[in-house]
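2024-03-11 09:14:02 INFO worker-7 job=invfold-0412 stage=load source=structure_tokens
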């Protein structure tokens, strides 16, 4: 079913236009909510209420539109609040000190999850879905833009495509200047920049890392606006025309952010084989959360694929240097001074994801430490300048990175009972079912509706379980002493020569796996010999432990690094092309993928061609044809693979314009994941978990064989030399 509600802004409704009606509605809603939350009910009454509310949610979920989403959020808040009220008032009466300590630990984790759930609803209930504003027809009225590409230790092969794409942006040439901010001070970068006609900028120090690099460039440039791209993020030709229109409409607009889209698989996608089939870890943030933040004027600056107004950026002191998440902190400073930010959910650039799980973990550690630093030294709950909704959006972003300890508690909580008989929830199994299951079911059903195409259920638990131990320590340190820790650069463009099991990253998951396996053994022992009177409680904790094993098995699978041998990633792309053969014949065809090193084409008929035969392939930008010399790498049936011959800078720039800089290439792939049924998601994670266990056992079996294998015997030749036998 469809609804026009999705096109209605809250301020355009009857309640939005009448403050007294809005206040009365909030008052009535609050009274009803409190009454529903604190009403004491028997087990039978609680079960009846839970079933009735869940049926209502299922019915509402069949109707499209945002008001249906708001109704489901309301029901979820009621059920979850009832659960938390019950937990706080009826399940914490414990005489045993061990029960009390472990019970408080679980309660803290649940309160944290409850707060994050509520704040998440605030952020995502009504995404703004801002549309681009067209630039004036007269290009003389367009402002000047300085485009910064900061780099430190990345290879030139990673940076050159970004530079060439930046030169291809559709913007008046005299109003766009491109600067490569090279903190590595490399001669080959200087030579390249001079050859292609962009500015190569260095400084005599590396203070404040990326933020300091950008701030140094700000002092020596004059453009009215600053566009910033990480050196692996390749902009499309339409980037500035899409992003700049809102600045002309809002004089107080300090920053416009667009999504970070990655054309290569991140370590989870690569190692788990989910690239293109399961939304990745970042899609929820860029697909939904930032769009929800935009409603509350709380869009975060993300360090790349963004444009900043120079005057406002300079007024807040440039890019923030007090924390290692300089981007989000800069946006916070803008909001404190009353300036606006905006988000356009249209991918206008694409970059490289981290190649290895260890690199991915290192990146997330930096993000987590930086957000904890902001929480500690510039807490958005306090200080002047922010509206209440902005404070909540920032707080939720910072609380998100504190998930380390709560996730570790969830992965070990059932072991308290299985090992020690500790009742961390002082209630019968039937009461726990009556209160906890509705809370879990409603939260998952509602979030599934809201998050839909951008995050599948339960996958966040896999991501968080992998990172929990590594996130927990730096966030704790940053909360205690925000000055500790250093900036680490995320490596991009590397290769993984051999498949291997990353035992260092998997160490925490393996330890938790061992604990949970022992918990299963303890539970079976309790079923048989100990807890005949508490069978339901044992089974409840065993079920929780089995679920944790499935999640941890997927974590182990993520640590099994697959090989990455291509310097240039292949990207699926179907566009018209023409092949010109050495004998003068030509053939219209279509590409199926490409990279900076070559492309694949589908032919209308088989074309016998020898390997290494020279050909010319033509690609198109509008009515313009661009030809590129190539050789045939393979020719199988109606499919042919081509490797580009050495290209001139002009040819490289034309290739970028026809491929990665196309205005439509990334937007067509954005948010296209179909909604997935719960049973399919669980089944998928379970299969991945089984593969993780198989790979883990295979790794340790091979390691054991290597240790047991005897050293090679040595024999002597007639000449007396030694050789192994």
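2024-03-11 09:14:09 INFO worker-7 stage=emit residues=725
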């Amino acid at each position: 079913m469809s609804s026009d509600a999705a096109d209605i802004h809250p301020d355009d409704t009857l309640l939005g236009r009448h403050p007294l009606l809005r206040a009365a509605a909030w008052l009535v809603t609050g009274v009803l909510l409190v009454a529903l939350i604190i009403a004491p009910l028997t087990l039978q009454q609680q079960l009846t209420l839970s079933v009735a509310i869940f049926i209502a949610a299922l019915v509402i979920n069949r109707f499209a539109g945002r008001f249906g989403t708001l109704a489901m959020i309301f029901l979820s808040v009621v059920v979850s609040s009832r659960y938390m009220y019950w937990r706080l008032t009826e399940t914490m009466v414990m005489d045993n000190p061990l029960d009390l300590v472990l019970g408080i630990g679980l309660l803290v984790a649940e309160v944290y999850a409850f707060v994050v759930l509520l704040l998440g609803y605030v952020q995502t209930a009504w995404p703004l879905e801002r549309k681009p504003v067209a630039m004036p027809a007269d290009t003389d009225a367009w402002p000047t833009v300085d485009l910064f590409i900061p780099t430190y230790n990345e290879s030139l092969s990673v940076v050159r495509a970004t530079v060439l794409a930046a030169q291809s942006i559709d913007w008046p040439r005299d109003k766009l200047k491109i600067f490569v901010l090279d903190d590595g001070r490399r001669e080959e970068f200087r030579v390249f920049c001079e050859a292609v006609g962009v500015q190569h900028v260095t400084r005599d120090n590396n203070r404040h890392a990326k933020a300091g690099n950008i701030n140094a460039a700000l002092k020596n440039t004059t453009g009215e606006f600053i566009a910033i791209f990480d050196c692996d993020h390749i902009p499309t030709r339409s980037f500035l025309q899409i992003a700049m229109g809102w600045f002309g409409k809002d004089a107080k607009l300090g920053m416009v952010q667009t999504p970070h889209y990655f054309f290569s698989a991140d370590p989870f996608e690569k190692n788990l084989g989910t690239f293109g089939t399961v939304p990745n870890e970042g899609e929820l943030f860029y697909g939904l959360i930032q769009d929800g933040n935009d409603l509350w004027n709380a869009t975060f600056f993300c360090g790349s694929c963004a444009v900043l107004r120079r005057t406002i950026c300079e007024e807040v002191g440039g890019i923030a240097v007090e924390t290692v998440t300089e981007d989000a902190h800069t946006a916070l400073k803008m909001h404190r001074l009353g300036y606006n930010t905006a988000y356009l959910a249209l991918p206008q650039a694409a970059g490289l994801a981290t190649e290895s799980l260890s690199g991915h973990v290192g990146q997330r550690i930096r993000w987590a430490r930086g957000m904890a630093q902001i929480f500690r030294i510039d807490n958005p709950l306090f200080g002047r300048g922010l509206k209440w909704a902005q404070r909540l959006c920032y707080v939720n972003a910072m609380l998100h990175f504190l998930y380390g300890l709560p996730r570790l508690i969830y992965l070990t909580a059932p072991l308290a009972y299985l090992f020690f008989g500790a009742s961390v929830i002082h209630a019968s199994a039937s009461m726990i079912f009556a209160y906890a299951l509705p809370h879990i079911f409603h939260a998952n059903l509602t979030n599934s509706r809201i998050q839909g195409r951008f995050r599948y259920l339960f996958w966040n638990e896999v991501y968080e379980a992998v990172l929990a131990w590594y996130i927990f320590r730096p966030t704790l340190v940053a909360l205690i002493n925000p000055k500790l820790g250093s900036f680490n650069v995320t490596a991009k463009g590397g290769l993984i020569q051999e498949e291997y099991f990353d035992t260092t990253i998997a160490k925490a998951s393996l330890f938790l796996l061992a604990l949970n396996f022992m918990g299963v053994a303890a539970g079976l022992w309790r079923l048989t010999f100990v807890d005949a009177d508490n069978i339901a409680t044992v089974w409840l904790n065993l079920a929780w432990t089995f679920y944790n094993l499935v999640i941890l098995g997927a974590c182990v699978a993520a640590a099994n690094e697959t090989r990455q041998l291509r310097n240039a990633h292949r990207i699926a792309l179907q566009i018209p092309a023409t092949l010109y053969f050495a004998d003068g014949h030509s053939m219209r065809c279509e590409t199926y993928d490409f990279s900076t090193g070559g492309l694949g084409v589908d032919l209308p008929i088989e074309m016998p061609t020898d390997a290494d035969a020279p050909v010319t392939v033509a690609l198109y930008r509008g009515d313009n044809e661009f030809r590129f010399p190539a050789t045939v790498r393979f020719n199988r049936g109606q499919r042919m693979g081509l490797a580009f011959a050495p290209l001139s800078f002009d040819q490289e720039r034309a290739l970028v314009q026809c491929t990665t800089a196309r205005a439509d290439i990334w937007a067509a792939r954005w948010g296209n994941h179909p909604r997935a049924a719960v049973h399919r998601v669980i089944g998928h994670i379970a299969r991945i978990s089984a593969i993780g266990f198989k790979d883990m056992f295979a790794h340790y079996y091979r390691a054991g064989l290597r240790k047991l294998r005897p050293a090679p015997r040595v024999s002597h030749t007639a000449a007396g030399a030694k050789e192994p036998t």
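2024-03-11 09:14:09 INFO worker-7 stage=report msg="The longest strand covers residues 624-636."
2024-03-11 09:14:10 INFO worker-7 job finished
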